[in-house]
């Protein structure tokens, strides 16, 4: 029939109740075994997982312990380093104080040294000054000795001068001479100097012989003051060329036969018509020509008293 056929089309074969029972019993038994196996597996997995957790915790604990130890060591090192830094800072402060004191001491020593050097410099200058003064005193002493010796040698001349010449005149080479050395007598022109001599009873000196010239030269070099300038040390003598340029005549009109001119003289620069003698070392180079209006000292000459 169609319905049965349909039912038969639905199930390929018929299964009896015993087969179902066997199947259920087998399935149940299999399920129980499977469950037991699963439980065992779960227990085994749980054990393995617990062991892993324990191992992990142990490792973590070891890591934490080592970290703690490391941190302790680091903290100790850090604390020791801080103490070291504190010690270094303290020592640096002490060294800074010592350095500052050394700098102050050095500056004080420098100031003291500079003061002593300045005092030494002043002392050196004073010593040089005293040595210079000593040398000057020695020169003055030597000059005084020479002057004393010369004056001593001229004592006979002065004595004879007192006998044969007016006061202030010097007796030499059988003549009386007046040399206007004194600063109280101002320098004069050639004509004014001659007027002075004539008022005293004499005239400007005439050195027309070698002996007279050397005698006057010695008197000039004996009494003149060396520190004066050369142009202030000249003395008028009784010689000029006013009548004819280049023709030199003495006061009595006699011609000059032998002159004692300095090198290059007479040169007649600016109407130099009068002669003057100067204190030179070389007695044969002592004359210069000069303008008659020029102001110089002078030498007078007079015959001695009998």
From TrEMBL:
One of its GO terms (molecular function) is carbohydrate binding. Pfam families: Lectin_C (PF00059). It comes from the Eukaryota. The chain crosses the membrane at residues 53-75. SMART domains: CLECT. Residues 110-147 form a coiled coil. Keywords: Coiled coil, Disulfide bond, Lectin, Membrane, Transmembrane, Transmembrane helix. Residues 172-301 form the C-type lectin domain. SUPFAM superfamilies: C-type lectin-like (SSF56436). InterPro entries: C-type_lectin-like, C-type_lectin-like/link_sf, C-type_lectin/snaclec_domain, C-type_lectin_CS, CD209-like_CTLD, CTDL_fold. Signal peptide: none annotated. PROSITE patterns: C_TYPE_LECTIN_1, C_TYPE_LECTIN_2. This is CD209 antigen-like isoform X1.
């Amino acid at each position: 029939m169609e319905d049965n056929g349909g039912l038969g089309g639905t199930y390929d074969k018929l299964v009896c109740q015993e087969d179902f029972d066997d199947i259920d019993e087998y399935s149940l038994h299999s399920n129980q075994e499977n469950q037991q196996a699963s439980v065992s597996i779960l227990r085994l997995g749980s054990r393995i997982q617990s062991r892993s957790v324990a191992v992990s915790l142990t490792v973590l604990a070891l890591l934490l312990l080592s970290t703690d130890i490391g941190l302790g060591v680091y903290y100790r090192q850090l604390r020791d380093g801080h103490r070291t830094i504190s010690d270094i800072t303290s020592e640096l402060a002490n060294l800074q104080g010592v350095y500052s004191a050394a700098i102050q001491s050095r500056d004080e020593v420098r100031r003291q040294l500079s003061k002593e050097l300045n005092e030494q410099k002043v002392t050196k200058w004073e010593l040089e000054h005293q040595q210079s003064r000593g040398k000057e005193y020695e020169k003055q002493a030597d000059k005084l000795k020479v002057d004393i010796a010369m004056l001593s040698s001229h004592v006979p001349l002065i004595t004879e001068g007192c006998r044969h010449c007016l006061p202030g005149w010097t007796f030499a080479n059988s003549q009386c001479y007046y040399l206007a050395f004194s600063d109280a007598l101002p320098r004069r022109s050639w004509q004014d100097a001659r007027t002075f001599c004539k008022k005293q009873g004499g005239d400007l000196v005439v050195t027309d012989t070698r002996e007279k010239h050397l005698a006057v030269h010695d008197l000039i070099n004996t009494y003149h003051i060396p520190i004066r300038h050369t142009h202030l040390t000249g003395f008028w003598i009784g010689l000029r060329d006013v009548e004819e340029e280049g023709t030199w005549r003495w006061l009595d009109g006699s011609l000059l036969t032998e002159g004692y001119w300095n090198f290059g003289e007479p040169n007649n620069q600016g109407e130099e018509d009068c002669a003057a003698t100067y204190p030179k070392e070389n007695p044969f180079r002592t004359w210069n020509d000069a303008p008659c209006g020029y102001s110089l000292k002078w030498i007078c000459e007079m015959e001695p008293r009998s």
